Amino acid sequence: MAEGNISQAGFEVFDPRTAPSGREPSATIQQGGLIYFNLAAFVAMGEPEAVELLFNRQERIVALRPTNRKAARAYAVRRQRKGGVVTGQAFATFHGLDVSVARTYVPQLVEKVLYINLNRPVNGPAGGQTKSKG
């Protein structure tokens, strides 16, 4: 590309309405597999002490379902000032999720269950969330 001759092909216009704000629920799957959700998501989930992690392999959706800490499959929620964190490394490894980079999502909440669609990251590479098994 010659200097002064830049094409606009391939550029995307940033729409600030699609970026998560602190008032709207957001979730980030950190590099390595930690699952962070902001205060808005934590409150909407009922401020759970623990969650169960679910995965719909076909739809590529992770769900965090509130439960009590003594449940057999419970993952403790570490409360933070601005939300909560769940250790999801074993979950990510078991399901072959690509956690090589952090990705943020705008989750859906239905009956206090947080649904994270891995096909729709707000930032980070789209579509690279499941490692190929071949």
Q: Can you give keywords for this protein?
A:
134 residues; disordered C terminus; mainly beta; 5-stranded antiparallel beta sheet
Please summarize what this structure is:
The chain is mostly beta strands and 134 residues long. 9% of the residues lie in helices and 33% in strands.
Descriptive notes:
There is one protein chain. The protein has 134 residues and is mainly beta. It is 9% helix and 33% strand. It contains 2 helices and 11 strands; from the N terminus they run ββαβββββαββββ. It has helices spanning 39-44, 89-94, and strands at residues 27-29, 35-38, 50-56, 61-67, 75-76, 78-80, 83-86, 103-105, 108-110, 113-117, 121-123. A 6-stranded antiparallel β-sheet has the order 6-7-2-1-8-11. A hairpin with a 2-residue loop joins β6 (78-80) and β7 (83-86). The termini are far apart.
Strand content: 25-35%
Q: List the secondary-structure elements in sequence, H or E.
A: EEHEEEEEHEEEE
Shape: elongated
Strand order, sheet with most strands? 6-7-2-1-8-11
Low-confidence stretches: 127-134
Query: Kindly state the mean pLDDT as a whole number?
Result: 86
The beta-strand count equals 11
* SS element count, helices: 2
Cα distance, first to last residue? 37 Å
Topology record:
Elements: E1 27-29, E2 35-38, H1 39-44, E3 50-56, E4 61-67, E5 75-76, E6 78-80, E7 83-86, H2 89-94, E8 103-105, E9 108-110, E10 113-117, E11 121-123
Antiparallel strand pairs: 1-2, 1-8, 2-7, 3-4, 3-5, 4-10, 6-7, 8-11, 9-10
